[in-house]
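Sat 14:20. Reprocessing the chain from the morning session after the first attempt stalled halfway. Input below, unchanged.
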Amino acid sequence: MSAHASGSGAPAVSAAAWEAIQGAYDLQVHVAPDVIERRIDDLDLAREFLGRGLRGFVLKSHYVSTAERARVVTKAVPGISALGAVSLNHSVGGLNPVAVEIAGRAGAKIVWMPTVDAANETAGRLEGPGTKLPFWPKSSANWPPPASPLRRSPWWTRLGKSPRPRACASSASPGTTWCWPPGTWGARKSSRWCAPRGRWACAKCC
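Finished this time. Tokens:
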């Protein structure tokens, strides 16, 4: 259910149709607040769903994770189950595993591949038809590309620790020669690739 402004000539929904979707979920709703105008917000939509006997919906945004919003809606409108999602567009770093991890930990249930920033989104490309050109290709034309999905985050961000150098176990003088933990920025600046270990390490640690 895309909550854009609907035309006045939309056909009426029959009672049989409403009966057929009792207890159903809508897996993609776009509602306010959003960066473009929507005809309804998430709380009012939840009340409409409840009044029609539907069970819930998935909030979708092209730009941010909706996991936290969904949890608030679920609490604010008892009887409705709102679920969050994340779309892997430039605003979250593109195909960014960290964005997926954070959204998942916050409760998101769906990960959408790129939408407005996908290569095949012809309506949103500067060289596209341009009849209804959205604002994002104009504003993001000179933005840098999103972060590479292949770049691993530093180990301390995964463990919640600060980086500290440690002594090289194979150093000629143990405890006096220090090297940064493998895979960190410091290790890459001061070390070389150690093929036997399959990682970056200072020369004496390889």
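The first strand starts at residue 25 and ends at 29.
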